[in-house]
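Subject: Sanity check before I submit

Could someone independently write out the structure tokens for this chain? I want to compare against mine line by line before I put it in a report. The sequence has 256 residues.
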Amino acid sequence: MGVSAVLPGLGFGLSLIVAIGAQNAFVLRQGIRGGHILAVIAVCTLSDVVLISAGIGGAGAFLTTTPVLMEVVHYVGGAFLLGYAAIAVRRALSPGSLRTAPDPRVPPSPSDAAASVDTASMGNTIGTVDVATAPAEPRAAGASTLSASVVPTHPRNTDDRSTLVRAVLTCLALTWLNPHVYLDTVILMGSFGNTYGRDRWAFAAGAMIASVLWFITLGYGSRLLAPVFARPAAWRVLDSVIALIMLALGVGLLVR
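---
Independent answer below. Compare away.
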């Protein structure tokens, strides 16, 4: 395998992937929230590996001979992006904030216990912990009563699985329902990579490395912005930008 083709693949891959788009906007938001970012990064990178391999392997030529398939992807992807734009608008109208969860080993104060940890994604709350005052009961001799009880309204383990599934499915949809993924990653990269002949898989390896580096940097690097997003106004701005991106991409696919 010609190592000399790895660097061109790396550069070409970065030139295609480092752009403002639906997938990158979603990874950025998940990274800031810390919402299952490892799973999201894994979905993005594995999807790119499959798509790049398909392009180098000749799937790009197949797509160019079946335009009806690309038409279906255009309309389905456009409708999905418009729906996601609507969800982003709803989030922008009711922004959340990042709050640090209390240490479970420390007894909560009444004000802390009543607070909920707002980690909403697409309008879904991971979980809240409420304090409910127990009803008064007759006291027996030597007995004591609890004045308050902590009631988890949503089991955390079940809700974590639910948000993980939502994040993965959304990431898959933003990746595989995006026609630009096939045009860029499969057709364009496949066509260019095959000009390297026997070294085309070295070129593909460079492009795959670019994908891994980019999504790790974007996903975990975005956590540096977490202090900024402790304010609801910052979420309002981010979700408004995401809504505009999704709206522009969705309309572009439907009225092209």
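---
OP: Matches mine. For the report I'm noting this point. The longest helix spans residues 67-93.
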